[in-house]
Amino acid sequence: MSTAAAGPATPPDALGPARELERRLGDPEDPTVEFSFARSRSLDEREEFPEAICAGLTAWGLHRYFVPPEYGGALRSYEELLHLVRLVARRDLTVAIGYGKTFLGAVSAWVAGTPEQCADLAERVLAGTPVAWALTERDHGSDLLAGEVVATRAEESFRLTGEKWLINNATRGRLLTVLARTDPAGGARGFDLLLVDKERLGPDALRCLPKVRTLGIRGADISGVAFAGAVLPAAARLGPPGSGLETVLRGLQLTRTMCAALSLGAGEHALRIASAWAGARRLYGRVLADLPAARRVLLDAYADQLAAEATAVVAARMIHWLPGELSVASAAVKYLLPVRTEASIAALGRLLGARSIFADGDFQKVGRDARIVSLFDGSTVVNLHAVVSQFPNLVRGYRRPRPWSRLRPVADLRRAVPPFDRERLALAARDGLTVLAALPDAARVLAELALARPGLTTAAELAGALARHTDRLHATIARLRPARGGAPGTHLAAAQDLARCYAGAAAVTLWLANHDRADQEWPGHDRAGHDRAGQERPGHDRAECGSAALWTDGRWLAAVLGRLLGELGEPVRPRPEVDEALWAGLTGQAASRRLFSLFECELAEGMGP
Amino acid sequence: MTVELEAVLGDPRDGANPVGAARILRADERGELLAAGEEALASWGLNAEFVPARLGGRLVAADRLVRAVRPVFRRDLSLGLGYGVTSLMAAVNVWSAGTPAQRRRVADLLLRGERLAVAYHEPEHGNDLARNEFAARVDGDLLRLAGSKRVVNNIARCAAFVLFARTADSAGPRAHSLLLVERDRLDPARVAFLPRTRTSGVRGVRLGGVRAADLPVPATALLGAPGRGMENALRSFQVTRAVLPGLAVGAVDTALRTVLRFAMSRRLYGGTVLDLPHARETLAGALADLLAVDALATAACRGLHLLPEQSSLHSAAAKYLGARLLTGAMEELAVVLGARYYLREGEHALFGKHLRDLPVVGLGHAGETACLLAIIPQLPALARRAWRTPAAPPPALFAGPPGPLAAPAAPPPELPTPPPDPAAPLVAPDADPAGLPELDFARLTLASAGRDDLTGLLLTATVPEDGPRHLVASLADSLRALARDAATTPPARRGPLADPETMRLAERYALLLAAAAAVGTWLAGRERGDPFLGEPRWLAATLARLYGHLAGRPAPLPAGTADWLVRTLLDRERDGLSFDLSATPVRT
To answer: DSSP class of residue A358?
Structure first.
C-alpha cells in the first residue's frame, strides 16, 4: 500500500488492480511467459485466437471487472477498468479486444436489463462465458437503422432471422446481444436488443460465418452469425419494446469511453519500442535520440500519450460523476484518441524507418492492430457526426459558465467515484460539457496560481490560449447552420476542434485537481525506492522515475496544451523547460520500467516470469 | 506504350487474369511476388524502360519512364518495387559512373530480363552512408570484400549488384566506392546470402542480405573512380527520387478508384456514400493531392533533363513530399472505406494492400530524413539568390507529356562499339518528341548553388483572372517567409543536428515546390487549351491543400472545387481513364 503521506484515509488507487494484474502476467519480454510479446506475435502470424492468454486473464479475474458490483462483479470504477484494459492492450490489442468484447456484449443489459436479466447475465459472465455484441450487418455498416435482421414476435417468443457480420467473437461468444428489427417499418423505435444463448437454440437455428481475415488483430474472431428462425424466449428482450437503438446509444457511451484504453495501450507499446531503439541506435556519430529532430518525435509522442491519458481518465470518471454529458464526451474521446494514437505511431514508424515493418518485430503489429480502434464501436466519421448533432447543446451549455470547483470531485483522484447510475445516462447532453463550460474559470484559477508560482506561467498562458480558442470555436459553431444528411467538412472540422478543446480542458482540470498531491506522492510508489512487493529495484528512486518532474510547474500540462493548440492551428514553440521535464519523464519511466504515464505504475519488464 | 502495358496486365478484376487483383492478393498472402506478374513484365520487356536508348533500351526521358511503368504500380507496389525499380536503382549508378564495358554489360543483362540489386544498406547505419563499414580492399588486380549488407531487395536472385563499399579507412566523403559485382562469378565459399527479412508491407519483396569474408572480385568491378562512391550514389539517388513518387501515383490512382466505386455503390443513411459531404470532400482532396504529386514528380523528372543542376533539390523534395502526400491521401480515403479497408478479403482488399505497401516508398535507401537533409543546407543560398532574383523555369518543363504516350520510336540501332567517351550522352538528343535534352548524369550536381528556377514561379507568375490568385499570393508570401527564416539558420543546424524547425524549413520548401509545379502545369495547360489541365479548379483545390499543410492545419477546399473534382473522378471512371495528369486509358 502507499505510504501514510497520502493522508489519513487511504485514497483510492485506480491503478491498483492494473498493477496487480501486470505483476501476475509477468515479464512480457520473456518469451517463456504465456502473455509475452513473442507469444502474441506468433499467434498473430498464425492467426490464432489467444485462448490460453485469455484463460489466464480469467484465472486472475479480469472478467469480474466487466460486471457491476450490485451483481457480484468488481466494476466499481470505470477508471480502474480503463487502466486494467490498457495494461492488457499494451501487450496485445488482439487480447484486449477479444477478451474485452464480453463487456461490450453485456453492456446493453447493464444499461437496460431488468434486475433478473442482469443477475442472470452476471452469473454467466462471472463463470467466464464470452459474450458478443452483434450490431452490424454486411450491407449497412454503421447505418443501424437499415438493419435487416428481423425478430418477429409470436406469443411468448421471438423468431430471429438474418445475418450479422463483422462481429467480434461472433463464433466464440456463447451469448450474443443482437440488435434486431421488431417493427417492419423500422425507425428509431423499431428495433430491439435480444440476448441470445447459442446453446439454447434449436439445431440449424444459427450458423456461424467464417472468420474474416483482417489487416491487424489477425488472431481475433471477427466473423458473423446467420440466424434462421431462431426461437428466443420473450424474456430475451432487454429493455422495453422498441428500445433497442436507444439502448445501443446508451451502451456505446460506456464502450466508446473505454476504447480509450485500447489507444492508450497501443500508444504505450509503440512508444516503448521506439524510445528503446532510439536510445540505443547511433547515427551520424550520435545516439539517435540525441538528434534534435528525432528527440522531437519521441517527445511529441510522449506528450500525446499523456494527453490521451488525461482525457481518458477524466472521461472515465465522468461516467460516474457526469453521466448526462457522456453522449458527447464519449464521442469526442472515441474520435480523438484513436486518430491521435495512429498519428503518433505513424510518426514513430517514420523514425524507425524500415525497422517499422520488419515482420519479426512488434512495431508493425502494433501499427496494424491499432488501426482497428478507429473503426469499431462507431468509426471516426460516425463519432464526429455524433458531436455535430450536439452542437446546439454544446453552444447552449457553454453560454452558462460554470465555476471550476464544480469539477473538483470529478477530477480529484483522491475522491472515490460514486456508483455508476445508469438512469442518468442521456441521449443528449442538455447542458453541454461542464469541462468546457468551466474552462474559462479553470484558466483564470491557473493564471492566479501562476502569479505566486512563476514556473506555472507557461502552462497558465497556454490554458488561457486554449480558453480563448474554445470561446471562438463555440462562436463559430453557433453560426453553423444545422446540417441535413451528412455533415459537411466545416462541421466535421469544428467537431474535431471541439474534441481537442475538450481534451485540453480535461487536462487543465486534471492538473488543477491533483497537482497539490502530485508534488507529494502517488500510490504505487514509496520514497524508499521499494516496489509494492517490498523489493528493492534499481532506478526506483522517485526522482528518477519521471512523473514528479512532469507535475512540477504544470510541465506536462504545458506540453499537452502545446500539442493540442498546434493541432488547432495555433503553433506553440517548444519550451526547453517543458521538453526537459518530458524527457526526464520519458527516459525515467523507460529506465525504471514504468508505464508512460502521469502516475506511477510499475511494469513487469525484467521481473522474470 | 502505357496502353500497351495496361493491356498486357489486363483487367485487374477478371478472376481468370493470371495477373489480376485476386492473384496479386493471394501471392501477397503467401509473402511472394506474383510469378506470373514477373513473367509478364519480363516478356513485355519492362527492363528496356530502364536502359538508355543508345544502349538498346527505351529510356528516353524520365517522365516517360514513369508513365510507362505506372501500370505496374497501379496493380501491385510490391511487384513494381520488387521486380522493376530495384533494377533501375542499380542501373542508374552504372549509366552515371560505369565504363562503356560496364554499361554494355548491364544493358545486356537487363535486356535479357535479368534482375539487378543495389546493396547500400547496413542496418546499423541507416541513412548514414558515410559510416558504412562493408570493406573493399585493393589487393593487386583484386578487390577483397568483407562485411555484410542487409535488407537488400533481390540480392539472392540477381545477376549482378551494385555495392557501396568502404575503400579507405578515413572518415569523410571520399572513403567509399561503388562496385559492380556479378553474382555468379563469386567464390561460393566466401560469400553467403543471408536469410530473407520478412516485412508487413510489400510482403512479396525479397529482402535479403549478403555477407562476404575476404571475397575476391576483379578490380575492374570498380564503378566510377575510387573514393567517389558517395558522390555517385547521391547522383543516382536524384534519378530514383524523382521517379519513385511518380510511380507511386499509380497505386493511389487505384486506391482512389476503389474508394470511388465503394462510395458509388454502398448505400448508407438512405443514399449512397457518395452523397455524404465527407466522402465527397475526401475523394476530391485525394484527387487534388494525387495531382499535386504528379505535377511535382513530373517536374522533377523533366528537371533531370532540363535543370539537372537543381535536381538535388527537386528530386529530394519530390521523394519526401510525394511519399508524404500520397500516404496521407490513402489514410483519408481509408476513413471513407471504413471497416472494409481493414479486411484482407473481399472486393476492397487491394486497397488495404496498397495502404500497407505505400509507406515503403518513403523508406528505402533515401529515407525521409535523408531527403530533408539534402535540402536544408541549400536553403540559405536559395534565399540569397534564387528568391531574391527569381528566374523563370524553361517552358519545356511543363510541355508534356501529359496525354497518352505514343508508341516509342523504334530504338536506335545498337551501337557496334560502346561510345568512346564515357561521359557521352546516353540518349540521342532528338530522341524525345517532347523535346527534352538527354539525361546527362555529369550535370547532376550535389548542390544547386543557389539556383531554383521552379519555386521562383510563385513570385513571378502572372495568374490570369480565372485562376486562384489569392492562393498564389498567399503561397508567394509563404515563400518570402521561408526565405527570411532560411537565411537565419545557423550552419550547425544545417546537418544531421537540424532541429525540428529547421527540418520544417525543408518541408515548407517541398510544399512550395509542389505548389509551383502545379501552377506551372496549369499555366502551360491553359496555354495549350488543355480542357483539364487548364481548368483552374484542380489548381485551386491542389493549392489549398498544400497551403493547409504549410499552415499546419487542413484547409477546406475552395467553394465549388470538390463537386467539380468528384465529377471529374466519375467521368474518368466512366471513360476508363487514369486519375493522374495524363488521363490515359487504363484497364480497371
So the answer is: B
